[in-house]
Structure formats: structure tokens, C-alpha cells
């Protein structure tokens, strides 16, 4: 579907009872940790999006047998921490920053040579944030622009890496996870400190596989840190992946802003390091309820019931940002439909995602009539805007394509979204789901 244009227009209220595809962050990690564990890992509700398929392809190239009996079921025959083999070719992560950065950490501890690359977007995203601390651990990594850009070549020696205590300036689960994964191959305890808590799926899942991980319990005194002991024996697990809250977010906003809508989205991951979107939408006046709250495979899960409501503008910044970083494109659409102004700050990270999400959102939503002021680290959005259908571009960014599609539901006339196939990266079936909910 890559490159395809899709025409979207509002057809009426959204009604339904549905699930969204499995969580992308958790699906990646299940394949990676399953490959590094001994024995079989069975993954249910795996996300068959392009990014997670890239992760499977990379581990297959390193000799791991991975079968996919159905699109959402994956079986990994793990070979243990030392069981990966030198790939015969370049490892291609496609569009996936998570694959690129977490694998750089894993590959740093291997006794072989490997090269990682990806698409145009990946080759323009910053990699120095992981190569710099990994080099401090003794890894040999070469790459473009002094190893700050992919392709990256990792020349592993198989000798243990140096365990470090590293403070990252950016709260990022990809940086934290890359270092913790290299720490599996360290000579002691590796610690990562961050300014705010980023998503903790790595810590939760690696602990379930048998790693010894400690996280700060009193951040006001200790700050936010995660530590890992080296060379644990990881054991294969059964993992049921919750629905992706980052995908559910598009439907939470759609149902909030399209009058007379009501949706029940079942089985959504509501990990407190990921649920900022619910908190902000509720603060804006959205009607969202959580039911059937439970823990599945170490992750909190709930059903979300959302109804249309009138929204108010808000201010988003600080430690909320890592808890909703991927949801800012769709929050910008919610803000366009809210009364008053919405200010988003402390979100400069958006500029180095699959696209420069601040510039692209402002540029594309303006084509639909929106008034948005760009800041280096966010934007100010004027609410209660009358949007008009237009021809807009996703710039190959899945979250931009979906945010524009939801804006199109409340615009006058129809909107053509160019390169809408990008949605397959994280939410295959997005457009057919949207259509179904409006019938
Ligand atoms: O670790 C992960 O699975 C992810 C971490 C976040 O990136 P950063 O770590 O760069 O903030 C997020 O934006 C990305 O979609 C997935
Ligand atoms: C930023 C994202 O993913 P990644 O960094 O893995 O490409 C995303 O899914 O919005």
C-alpha cells in the first residue's frame, strides 16, 4: 500500500466495539528478547506492521528460526545470549527507529561484524545518542557523520563490554533500552539515568525473561534510573501483546470530536509510562472510561469507552511529554476542535521522528485551514477551527497520515492523503477500520 493516496471524508458518527492491533514497542521487544533467550517464545497478538516485520527479518538473518503461523502469532526459537550468528548481509530496519537503536545495543555485545541500515528517514535520524554511550562501553561502531547517522557498522569482539553509569540528556526508551541491552554483555551492573521516566517495556519484559533489573522507586530523591546485571540466563516466555494505546489514540480523538460517536476499544495497554493521552484528553473534557482493568504478561490492560464531548484547549509539557510523545500529532487534531488555545512545549524530539512532526503537522494542517504557530520545541494551536478538505501529504510518516485522516473526518468536503500507505508501519487496516466504524 506504500505510496498510495487515500480519500477521506466524514460519513457520520463513529460507533462500534473493536480491538486495535498489538503494541508496536512490545512486539519488537518480544521478538528481540525471545531471540536472546533459551528455548521457545510464543507471541500472541503480535503487531504485523512493517516495523515489527523488519525486526523479525533482522533476527532471521542472524540465524534465529522465527515462524509466523498466522499474521498475529509468532514463534521464536531462541538460542540464548550467545546464540546469534554473523549475518551474511546488511541488516535492514526499514523505517523503524526502535529496531535500529535497540539492535545497535545488542550487536555491540556480539563476537561478529554487522551493518545496520534503513530507509531515507532512518538514515537521517540521530544515532549518536546511542553510539556515543555504546562506544563508552567499549563498542567499536563506525558510521556516517562520525557514527551519528546510519548505516552503522558494528565490529563486535565478543569480549565483555564495560558496564557504565550513563546519564542521558533525553528521556528516551530507545536510548535506555540500547544501553541496557548492551549491559547484558557487560562486566558488571549497567545503569541508565534519564531526566523523566520513558516507557518501561524493556524493564518489565526482560525481568519476566529472567534478567535482574532495578528501577528507581523514589524518583524525587534518586532521579529516574534503571540498572541491569550482566549475563543473566534468559528463558523463553509466552507473551500476549496488549492493543497499542498509540493506535487507539487516533480513535479516542476521532470519537471525541465527531458528534454522537461512541466506541468501546477492548484490550488496550495502559502502562502508566504510556497513558498520557488519556490524562490529557480527559483534562480537555473528553469522556473516556476504563473498564475491565487487568494485568496481561506484566503490562496493565483495560477496555476504553469513549463518547463525543466538547473539548477545551490545554497546555502540554514537562514529564507528560515522554508519556505521550507519539500521540502529539493526533492531540494537535483534538486541539483544532477544542475551545481556546492549546500550547505544546518540551517536545523538540518530534523534530527527529519519522519526519519533523512539528513542521509537517503545521504545514499539512494549514493546507486544511488550521492556524498553528510553530515553536522549536512544540506548537500553539488555535481551537474551534473550521477545517476544509484539501490534498495533504503524509511525508511517509504513519502517524501524520492517521492524524490527517482524523482531521479529514471533521473537515468540509473530502481530503486526499498522499502516501497514506505509511499507516502499515504501525496500524495495518487503519482505513478499513475507520470506514467500518462510520457505517
Ligand atoms: O522504545 C520504543 O519502543 C519507542 C520509544 C519512543 O522513542 P524514543 O525513545 O526516541 O523517545 C517512541 O517514540 C517510539 O515510537 C517507540
Ligand atoms: C517514533 C516512532 O517509531 P520509531 O522511533 O520506532 O521509528 C513512532 O512509531 O511514532
Automatic annotation (TrEMBL):
**Localization per Swiss-Prot or TrEMBL:** Cytoplasm
Q: What is its EC number?
A: 2.5.1.19
Kindly state which reaction or reactions the protein catalyses. Answer: 3-phosphoshikimate + phosphoenolpyruvate = 5-O-(1-carboxyvinyl)-3-phosphoshikimate + phosphate
Residue stretches making up the Enolpyruvate transferase domain: 9-434
Record-linked NCBIfam families: aroA
Which molecular function GO terms apply here?
Answer: 3-phosphoshikimate 1-carboxyvinyltransferase activity
Instruction: Please give an example of a GO cellular component term from this record.
Output: cytoplasm
Where does the chain bind 3-phosphoshikimate?
24-25, 29, 172, 174, 326, 353
Q: What does this protein do?
A: Catalyzes the transfer of the enolpyruvyl moiety of phosphoenolpyruvate (PEP) to the 5-hydroxyl of shikimate-3-phosphate (S3P) to produce enolpyruvyl shikimate-3-phosphate and inorganic phosphate.
Per its record, how is this protein called by name?
A: 3-phosphoshikimate 1-carboxyvinyltransferase
* Transmembrane annotation, as ranges: none
How is the subunit organization of this protein annotated in UniProt? Monomer.
Its pathway, per UniProt, is:
Metabolic intermediate biosynthesis; chorismate biosynthesis; chorismate from D-erythrose 4-phosphate and phosphoenolpyruvate: step 6/7
Q: Which EC main class describes this enzyme? A: transferase
Record InterPro entries: Enolpyruvate_Tfrase_dom, Enolpyruvate_Tfrase_sf, EPSP_synthase, EPSP_synthase_CS, RNA3'P_cycl/enolpyr_Trfase_a/b
Pfam families linked to this entry: EPSP_synthase (PF00275)
Q: Which organism is it from?
A: Heliorestis convoluta
* Annotated residues for binding of phosphoenolpyruvate: 24, 97, 125, 174, 357, 399
Q: Which family does it belong to?
A: Belongs to the EPSP synthase family.
Active-site residues, Swiss-Prot/TrEMBL: 326 (proton acceptor)
Which GO biological process categories is it annotated with?
amino acid biosynthetic process; aromatic amino acid family biosynthetic process; chorismate biosynthetic process
Q: Which UniProt keywords apply?
A: Amino-acid biosynthesis, Aromatic amino acid biosynthesis, Cytoplasm, Transferase
